[in-house]
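Before the break, one more example. Copy the sequence into your notebook; we will annotate it together after we see the structure.
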Amino acid sequence: MGRLFSVRDLAAIGTIVMACVLFAFNLRLYFQTDAALQLYLPEGYVRTQLYYSLSLVLCVSSMVYAVYSLKRREVLAEQAKKLNQFVQEVDIRQSAIDEHTATSISDANAIITDVNERFVKTFGYSRSEIVGQNQSILYRHKHLDETFLDIGRTTRAGKVWSGEQKLVAKSGETIHVNTTIIPQFDEAGNLIRNLNVRTDITAQRQAEADHFMTRMLEELQDEVFIYDAETLQLTYANLAARDRCGWDRAEVRNFRIVDTAPNFDEMAFRYHVAPLVNGRSSVVTIEIKHNKGPVEIATRLLAGPDERPIFVSVLRDISWRKKIQDAKMESVAIVSHELRSPLTSIKGSLGLLQSGVMGALTPKAQSVVEIAARNSDRLLLVINDILDIEKIDAGKMDFTMQPLDLMRFTRDAIAMNAGYGTSFSVTYELETDLDTAMIAGNSDRLMQVMTNLMSNATKYSPSGEVVTIRIAPQGMYWRVSVIDKGPGIPDSARDTLFTAFAQVTSSDGIKRGGTGLGLVIVKSILKRHNARVNFKSRMGHGTEFYFDIPAAIDTNIEQPVRQDAAG
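Here is what the structure looks like once it is written out:
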């Protein structure tokens, strides 16, 4: 707290007091009798009266000056107080501007000469990095950006430019801002600088986009789950997903994705999404039997708002698709059943003709019979594959699981298919460091898998090449790979390769025989073994088909087959 009175205030007050004393003293003398005046001032009456008058004037003047000084002091103090308040208000306003707006100053050539702290925080550049740079550094298309060019034209014309912009931070992130650019000119009318004032509205635009996206997701009939890629903790589930799970929107974050199904196998799920985590695939899909019927689940790995990896899984009801497929397969199966008996009879008759039992054939007739026999074999193979798929889907195929050593089983598969490989001048080679690899499986069904994969690799291998069968550990699984050095499979075929009657046109132009059902059977059989099949390929360098099958934990106990895969 300051002093109550300054030295100047005390001097003014003292002057007033002295003037009052002198004024009272001289006033008293002024009204004294002549005798008394003669006693005090013998010089004469007129002179005495003049002296008294001057003294009175001096006293009054002193009093007026002292009062004026005090009054002026009060006025100056009040003005100083108002000036101080004004300065404080200006400081507050400037602080508010610096806190909420990114301001910069650029010269007539758009070179940045100064920025405030908010600009540094908004765009990620340090002051030394941005000062001296052209304003175009903030634009996606630099100095060719149409908005940047429009601002230059507007400000040079002496007008203020205002509008919303999408600028680019140092990190490459898009920054949404409301911008006002004010030009300043010298006395000659030349542009000397621009004041750029920008307010970051990125969060507002993101919130609007999120709200729109949420509304759109809420209306979908497909179930949508968004969850942390590491912890599997849910962050969002749309209305369809919440209704099935019986959750309120507020409690979604209390659950993990494993809580969405009673038979959810977290280890199997981690294996399923591994291609996303290691970057081998952008999306993984799986078909499962859900409590709402057959569904297809597609999962992608994305970066969340805080750059943490998140999974987005979309669960789609494919009951209608399955009904169409089942109806198609049922029709084909009925026809196949009806064709199988007469076709077997035709094949037998052609065999008799080829053997010469019915008499010798002319070379021309022999050629025709051989063509008919080959096509009969192919047609019978297609029919058998269709009937196998029907049995698998209907649950009529035997899948009794027994302890099985993959090493011994694979050697048997190589021996069984050696003759087929010889017909293409292709050999098989087992590559492994393992002595034993136990699983629970059905040897007949798995032999179908190996025969199919090995025959495909053989057909696509150049003559004289080796098809490699490799067995290696893969976490809690054994990975069995069949590797050829053929022309390769284009990545565009990945989504259709394991569907019925899908056949890929080879890049070398050579047509290979096949029913288009082999890989469908492979996938169905492996699914009953809780195994999954996939492939890796490089055009011109070959293809590796592989399946990962769970390693047996207790090989002394028959393991039941789980018909539903984890979602």
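The chain has five domains: 7-97, 101-200, 205-317, 322-394, 402-550. The domain at 322-394 is CATH 1.10.287 (Helix Hairpins). Try to locate both features in your own notes.
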